[in-house]
Amino acid sequence: MSLTLYLSGEIHSDWREQIISGAAGMDVSFTGPVTDHAASDDCGVAILGNEPNKFWHDHKGAKINAIRTRKAIADADVVVVRFGDQYKQWNAAFDAGYASALGKSLIVMHGAEHQHALKEVDAAALAVVETPAEIVRILQYVIDGTLG
Q1: Domain CATH code at residue 26
Q2: What is the mean pLDDT, run by run of 10 residues, along the chain of 148 residues?
Q3: Residue 43, SS3?
Q4: Which of 60, 99, 95, 55 is nearest to 78 (CA)?
Q5: Tens of pLDDT along 108-117?
Q6: What is the tally of structural domains in the chain?
Q7: pTM, whole model, 2 decimals?
Q8: In this structure, are residues 99 and 106 in contact, taking their beta carbons and an 8 Å threshold?
Q9: Which of 8, 42, 55, 70 counts the highest number of beta carbons within 10 A?
Q10: Is the distance from CB of 88 to CB of 12 less than 8 angstroms?
């Protein structure tokens, strides 16, 4: 079995790289958002022109980023959404809701300290984990049925 995973969420740690390296040798491909924070924030004005008002600056960028996000989530077999410790990732919550609305298999990753705040997101997930290693083990089991 082959899988395509969309890796959504916080961009300030190496959790994506841990999953990708842990899944080496598995029949898995990975997609995700643009993780270059400046490029993601400024793509709208860089492509469509400056905006003096920050709302419109962000609005342009969000819409251009949504083209990539919608396509990648729609094409994914599994959507992994990571909520980090430092920032509130409202975009990650939106991605989880969008994936759930599309009927995608959803794995949510966060620490115990966010359990209450994310209870509705967790309820939509097929698995809630705390570490990238747990995701790698889920992938191994789903792909080949082993617990190795």
Answers
A1: 3.40.50.450
A2: 95 95 97 94 96 96 97 98 85 95 98 93 97 98 91
A3: helix
A4: 99
A5: 999 999 999 9
A6: 1
A7: 0.94
A8: yes
A9: 8
A10: no
